[in-house]
Predict the 3D structure of the following.
Amino acid sequence: MSWTINQALHEAVSFLQTRGIEGPRKEAEYLLCFLLEKERAYLYGHGEHPLSDPEKNRFLQLLEQRGCREPLAYLAGKKEVMGKTFLVNRAVLIPRPETEHLVEAVIRWLRETYPRQREGEGFSLLDLGTGCGNIAVMLALNFPAAAITAVDHSAEALQVARQNAIFHGVKDRVETICSSFWGSLAPGQHRFQAVVSNPPYIPRSAMASLMAEVQKEPRSALDGGNDGLEAYRKILPNARDYLTIPGLDALEIGENQAESVGAVARSAGLLVDQIIRDYGGRERVILLRA
Ligand code: GLN
């Protein structure tokens, strides 16, 4: 039996509800819009429009996957954050809105510190653990003359980052390197005005209690080792060898990690410049100066 749009939404909402998905109406609409390649208003205006059999089957398939806690962003293959759309798949962390605080802080610092280079002329900027490339792309868009290096240990993730660089028209200025943090970057040879990273920072003991959706994301993008700080201990001791003076190391951090990360930074000879909280009042970004 074929379904109209209204029937499809109705069935979807009750199915998602039985699977314990929060906000089932919103999610059902999102998936149907994605499937039909339409805006939400279309669903309301065409409630009696019938779905074709392939559309119905594909919708059922998407619902089943969502019912098994597959994140919406992976199902749709994209996530909208910072006012832009980023392509994503299971090889990358789904970009979070909180990361905008990190990106904004870097842009502000560079504009204040280098007021004459508004386009980013002569800037080399580095994104460690780029994932889908959201940070690298945002920096490239905000500094149209800057050169960005995007590093990730996962070749699959870099493929996604490259797709996003192409999608946003910045591929000529975003170089991707497959390496674990500093791994294959020779120190001293190349210096960056800013090194940015949103590294994994979840303490290992908390990994098992993450939401089922989050557990579908790459473990290596989330797991910060026993105390959640392992990545900072890898990044910070070398940071000064890669930064210009003045230079900025900007890191996303987890709740209540500012003090410990600040201590690691100071012992690496960096100065703690600022700690920025997110809209929920949680410590979210630490800015360190060379
Ligand atoms: N840079 C990406 C982001 O901020 C990926 C970060 C990660 O994989 N830990 O979303």
